[in-house]
Amino acid sequence: MADKMLRRAVEREFEIIGEAMGRIEKLDSSLNISSKKQIISMRNRVIHGYDKIDNEIIWGTIVRHLPTLKKEIESLLK
């Protein structure tokens, strides 16, 4: 939390992931990605600054949701 540059870098990665998810959704909304809508919503919150970005929400997403997303994407790529 003390490293502002690192926090901003993580937020930027969420922007990129969310933007990619939005594009994937437009191309094929039938793809089975469990958190599509939430990922896109997170991107919108980060990029547009809706409310203040809560570091606990960001960290919770990293710990709880990114591993699942990674597995789902790896499965789709196979």
UniProtKB/TrEMBL annotation:
GO cellular component, one term: toxin-antitoxin complex
Top-rank taxon, per record: Bacteria
Database matches in Pfam families: HepT-like
Keywords, comma-separated and alphabetical: Hydrolase, Nuclease, Nucleotide-binding, Phosphoprotein, Toxin-antitoxin system
One Gene Ontology term of the molecular function aspect: nucleotide binding
Sequence similarity: Belongs to the HepT RNase toxin family.
Record protein name field: Uncharacterized protein DUF86
Source organism (scientific name): Breznakibacter xylanolyticus
